[in-house]
Structure formats: C-alpha cells, structure tokens
Sequence to fold (519 residues):
Amino acid sequence: MIALENVAYSYGGGELLSDISLRLAPGSFHFLTGPSGAGKSTFLKLCYGELLPTAGRITLFDREVRGLTRDDIALTRRRIGVVHQDCQFLDHLPLAANVALPLTVAGKPSGAQDLTDLLTWVGLGNLADARPPQLSGGERQRAALARAIIMGPDVILADEPTGNLDWEMSLRLLTLLVELNRMGKTVLIATHDLNLIRQAKSQIAARVLRITKRKIQLAGADL
Amino acid sequence: MNPLSLIRPDRQADRVVPPSGHTAWLTSFTAGAMAFLAVFAMALSLAAGRLADRWSDALERTATVRLSAPEDQMDLQTKAVLEILSKTPGIASASAMTDDEQRALLEPWFGPDLPVDALPLPRLIEVTEADSGYDSEGLRQRLAAEAPGAVLDDHTRWRRPLAVAASRLRLLGLLSIGLIGTATAAMITLAANAALAANAQVIRVLRLVGARDSYIARAFVRRFTLRALGGAAVGTALGMLGVALLPSTDTAGGFLTGLGFQGFGWIYPLILPLLAAGVAFLATRASAFRKLQELT
Fold:
C-alpha cells in the first residue's frame, strides 16, 4: 500500500530522514516512535504526499509519488485518513458537516443515518450540531478520527493522536483505532507515549518502529 | 473549469468557504463603481462615434464654390460656374445661395442687420455630390480656366480634423473601458488573494481530506464571480439612470447633451455586468490556482 525505498528528506540544508525503507502491508498495525524532532511528523507527511522525498522512492497504492499530479494526490488522500494532534476543522461548519467533509469534496452523498452512526461510534452522537471551537481536545481528536475514516480509507495515519488527551480518553481513541484495524484497515500511529504502545500490544499484534539518528529501526523488543 | 458550472447552485461547495465580509464588500463595490464609470465611457464612445459619422456624412457629400469677382461680372461668372458644375460627372446638384441665405449664414456672427448688398461678399455656390463622387482636381482646373475667381472648397480641411478628433474621442472611450476592465481585474485579484490567504487553514483542511484544486478554486471563483455580477448590475443600472437623466438635446443642445444612448444603444451597457463577471471569473480563477500552489 505504502512503500518507501531508500527515502531521504532534507529540510533547511540538514538531512532529517535518511535511507529509510519500509513497506506498510494491508491490515498491518504500526507504531512510530522517537524523540521530539526526530522526524515522525515528516515521515507521516511523506506517507500521504504532503512532502516529497529529496531522495529515494515512495509508492502510494502502486504509484510513484513523484509522478502524481496535484489531482492524483488529492484522489490518493481519499484513500488515506489522517489524524493530527492539532486537528484542524472548518470552524464555521457544524461538527457533522466537518466529519462529512471528505464525502462533500468527493461529491458523494452522506447518508444521515450513517453519519449519525459514525458520530455515535466515536461517542459524539449528541454533538452533531456543535461547532469545532466548542469541542474539548478529546472530542476534537475523535471527530478527526471520524472524519479520517468516513470515506472508508485503506490506511489511517495518526500523528500524536493522544498528545492532548488524558489516559482514559487515550485508551478510548486507541480502542477505536484497534477496532478499525480489526476491520482490515492499515494503521500507523506516530507517538512518543510508550504506555499507549504497551497497551496496544496487549490487544493487537503491532510492530513498533523507532526513528533514531535519521533512520528507522524495528524497536519492538524493548517495549 | 466550466463557467456554466457557476450557474448551477452547489450549496455544499459554497458552504466550505466561510463568508468573508470585507472582500465581499470590496468586490461588489469595485465591480459596481467600475461598471458605473464604464457606462459613461461607453456613452462617450458611442456618442463620439455618432458624431464622427454625422460630421462625415454632412461634410463628405457637400462642397462649396466661393466666387469672388467684380460686381458687374458676378452674375456672368456665377452662370459660367453653374454651367461647369451641371456638366461635371458626379455632381447631383448645384445652386447659388441667395442674399437672404447668405445673410442667414452670417447672422450668428454679424447680427440680423447685415447689409449684404453693401459688402463685397463672395458668392457661395452649394454643391451636392452624387453617390459616385466627382474628380475635385479636374473640377478645380476647369474652374480656374473658365471662372478664375472661383475656388472649390470640398471641406477636406474641415472634415479631416473633425473626423480625427471624433475618432480619437471614440478611441479614448474604448481605452477607458479597457482600463476600467483592467483595474477591475486587478482589484478583484487583490480581493481574491486576500480571501484565499485569509482562508489558508480552510484550504489546508480541504486538501487534507482530498479536495482537488478545481473544487477549492470553484468555491472561491463562484463566490467572486457572482459578487462581481451583482455589483456590476447595480453599478450599470445607476450609470444608465445617470445617462438617462442628462439634459436632452431639445432643451440645451450641443455635443455634451448628445452623450446619452440612442435606440438599440441602450442594450450595450447591459453587457457590462456580464463582462465584469467574466473578468472576475478569469481573475479569481488564475489567482486561486496560483495561490493554491503556494499554500499547499
């Protein structure tokens, strides 16, 4: 689905990521960890075409990312759900319209019942008409997750999705992501929360990757 | 992007871009003010065109033979000139002006009591040209041979500067419309850029969830085009009202009072709102795609 071969990314003259090779297989569950500033967010941005590698090759759904037009990238993003730590919404629209936004821009109808079911599934059924600024951090994260999966994407990328949440809310979000993985979705979560990773590994077979000195290593054994 | 897609309402797409007050106001006001000015520029251009045609028509088909001769030979030479003119191909008619007609001609300058008989005025012979036209140079030579005091004035020296002035006036009108259109495009581009920059976060979110550039651009282009159309429609209506309220030729006379539209001419200003919408469409579209490349 997403494959990186000898990928490097330089930023402001310095190399942030170097010689990274990785393949996210369908239905896999990965954690990406590492210290702040190691390049976790950059890695995720490379995975959904927000950034282009300065060296190496990235393939998204069997297409080399450098050969994609802006329209192609837009279409590819409909197959990749992204959740950010500082998830952004259209503040002038109610929550339900924000969650349905991927369907709106794709010109697909959003069934009212499906939307209600999705909001209920992430625990926001009673906030459909609320505006994003009225939501708490946890509610925003869950709303972002709902928005990320409404198109039924093949891959879900989450960048520090529990960064602003308390432990209880973090577990709730993790449970949702695990459920999605069990439905066959490929999940990659960038986080520095080792407790979250341990909790996930008790529920599901997850691989843990660590960015150290600009490279990615498998880091499951010490967790 | 198909301009006709702008006509089809798309509430969902319209909603993704938040309403932005000052750019909306600026676009509508700019389009309205420019359309208002364009109505007057158009009226000026059309009036100059009419004037040029009228002057050309009036002067092109007539000529004057001015005959200066001793008093005792005046009638004889007048007869000789009329004889020559009647035999000249391309001349429809020729007639010597009577004293009364000459007095009426000079009245605006010398008053009604001009003693025409007592003054050594030349005899004026009015010549009307036929459609085929005549050979003015050949006629001049014949007049010089048979009536040495006769001078042919085919109005060329009057007609040329008037025609040049009128056509330049028309050109100025058209140039004004072009400048107004360019200024409108520039102002709307600035407003669109400001709106796009103010909505950078919205654009980033839309790109993140898979919106194509054309989708995002259309939301902005549609909004700006419709604002320009509305503003220009109001400006055009006010401009046409202003032109309609100008003093009529009957009451004041003169060139300035001929500035209004005539007949089908009233239809021309109705094109202005569509032109403004077209300018807004092109300007916003170019601006949107350029800005989208910068922002995401």
In short: The CA atoms of residues 143 and 199 of chain B lie 81 Å apart.
